[in-house]
């Protein structure tokens, strides 16, 4: 096999005119108790040259803070309100009137995210998605805002059935007819775009034996050739995005644009979270900003100038899950940078990726077992099940995390799924916790969920549903 190294000249930036290049925004999450006021946040974004922000609700204090700042805002209709928006057009109209029309155009709301990663929502809101999007759009028409404000919904990469090689990208078969085709039709008819959340960190963390760190961090590397079309990829981000483009193309929706509504890299993680570090986070986000602001698209769509929202603005100390979840921030709550990267073309002039020296000639970190946890190589079968004594509220919170951000495969516990019955919180949580546990190496740290779960050595069974063990994966 021939190998090519990316020539260093492609990283040189010619600062002429990048008016047609992509755009950088940031996600402003607020799951923390120590963040600055929204007014200070607006000032911080302005000082950094960030002109786009995405929020996860429609908090009045936040929307007022961005008034007359020139910052373009994407707001969110939460998953728990999808059913109301889908079933009741008057609810959608009232929501738009209170949360959008009341602030626009002083606050430059440019898009509404209807739900977030709905397909992994354990509350089975998928069936409401397209109807909710249509009703929200009709409400915008009512207030004559439909030309200025687009409606979409962020999907996770777990919505793909195939993602490798990129050209084989396809959406999950059970979602194509009921959701993706009508949603993509809606996006086409309204001139909107598909929102996608993409995290190369997760793919790297789970596959360090086959994915090089340089490839994940946009650094010089031989590249990876797509065996189907011969295109060579020099970074994992492009490969993931092109898998989504290929999935749209397979359904004949090549004309629809794509916006990356979330991507990022944690600056800190637990012992088993390989690659989570300040140096790697700085490299990923800094090199991504350079790529987006200097144009070029992806191998499959070279003219696709992407808008990308970095995740996230701050470290959020009340987020659930592993340490990485609380350490995606570009800034500490005191507004100091976690690491120094630019957000503008002007800032790129002096940007350098401060690559640490290789250790022993190896440019990537090899995965290690640590922490005294339960390892697949040292034990027999083990499972992770719910601890019902912790209480329903904490159990539900842990279940929501496992099926959402945690990436557990929760399709089997959806209505009609083989493990939906018994329809109890303990049974569903046990299935989700075990999926997360088996997927992430069966370490003790992957079966905690804040005390909501415990490891067992006897195969648990709920009704006719048996929880899989690691040896079956």
Can you walk me through this structure?
With 473 residues, this protein is an alpha/beta fold. It is 30% helix and 14% strand. It contains 13 helices and 17 strands. The strands form five sheets. It has a nine-stranded parallel sheet with strand order 5-4-3-2-1-13-12-9-6. Strands 7-8 form a two-stranded antiparallel sheet. Strand 16 and strand 17 form a beta hairpin. Helix 5 runs parallel beside helix 6 and helix 12 crosses helix 13. The longest helix is centred in the middle third of the chain and has 18 residues. It is globular and about 60 Å long. The N terminus is likely disordered.
Layout of SSEs?
Blueprint lengths: L22 E6 L9 H11 L3 E4 L4 H6 L6 E6 L4 H6 L1 H13 L6 E7 L14 H14 L7 E3 L1 E3 L3 E3 L7 E2 L1 H18 L2 E5 L2 H7 L6 H4 L7 E2 L6 E2 L2 H15 L6 E7 L14 H16 L13 E4 L34 H4 L34 E4 L5 H12 L21 H15 L13 E4 L4 E2 L2 E2 L7
- The general outline is globular
Number of helices: 13
The whole-angstrom Rg is: 22 Å
The N- to C-terminal Cα distance equals 31 Å
Major β-sheet annotation: 9 strands, parallel
Work out the number of β strands. 17
Overall average residue pLDDT: 88
Q: Beta fraction of the residues?
A: 5-15%
| Succession of helices and strands | EHEHEHHEHEEEEHEHHEEHEHEHEHHEEE
Which regions are unreliable across 5 or more consecutive residues at pLDDT < 50? 1-19, 358-379
Classify the secondary structure makeup into a structural class. Answer: alpha/beta
Helix content: 25-40%
Main sheet: strand order: 5-4-3-2-1-13-12-9-6
